[in-house]
Amino acid sequence: MEEPPERWARSCSPQRRYDMLTTNIVESMNSVLLEARELPILRMMDFIQVKLQHWFYERRNKAEGTFYDVSCWVEEELKNRIDLAFTLNVFPVDSWRSRVEEEGITFLVDLNKRTCDCFQFQLDELPCIHAIAAIEKRNIKKSDFCSHWYLKESWLKTYERQIHPVGHTDSWIVPESVKSQIVKPPDFKVPPGRRQKKRHIPATEPSKITFKCGRCRRIGHNRTACIYSPALHPFSRKHREE
User: Fold this and answer.
1) Which residues contact 114 (CB under 8 A, 6 or more apart)?
2) Do the Cβ atoms of 18 and 121 come closer than 8 Å?
3) Contact 52, 163 (CB under 8 A)
4) Does the N terminus or the C terminus of the chain have fewer Cβ atoms within 10 A?
5) φ, ψ at 107 (rounded to 5°)
C-alpha cells in the first residue's frame, strides 16, 4: 500500500504493461537448477545449455504446428469470451462503431481505434467480450484486432534462434586478448551455517502447511490445542497433572 497506483494498477500506469510483474520466471529457473547448482561451473553451464536447447526446440515445434493465426493461449482465451459475447445485444452505429448492451449497461466499441468503454480492449490489446460481439456481428476475423505480440509470427520469432552446443574445449577459438587475462577467484567469504537452497517465503504468501488433529481429525490445529475432544485420555499428560 506504500507504493503509488502507477506501480500496481495497470489502468493507472502511464506505460504499456502486460498483466502483472512477478518473479515467477526467476523462481522457476531456480527450481530447475536446484540440483545443477551443486555441480562444477562448467557442468552447470552444460546443463543449462541442454535445458534451454530442449525448451526452444519444443516451443518452436509447437508454434510451427499450430493452425491458428494467434498463439494457442490467445485462441483459447477468445473461445472462452465468445460464449459470453453471444449473450450480449449489439446495435451497429456505423461500419466500425457499435453499441453493446450487457445487463442494462451500454458500452461503445470502436473497432477502428480498438477501444471499448470497459477499457479491457485497450489494456490487454485483445478483443474483450463487447468487441467480440461487435466483430461477430460483422463476420470478420478476430485475430485482425489482436496485438502483433499475440500473433503466430511473433511466437515463432521468439524461438527462431537455436541453442548450439559449445563443443569440446579443443575446438574453441579464444582470442589472444582473452587468453592473456588473468582471472582471479572472487573475494568471497563463506558464511557460517548450512547453505540456503530453498527460496524464502514472504510473509504475504499464504502458508501451504496444514495441521490435522489426531483426536478429532479436524484441520487447523493439533491434538495439544484440541478443544473438540469430549474428555481427556486417562494416560494423557494433562490428566496426570490434575
Assistant:
1) 121, 122, 125, 131, 145
2) no
3) yes
4) N
5) -125, 135
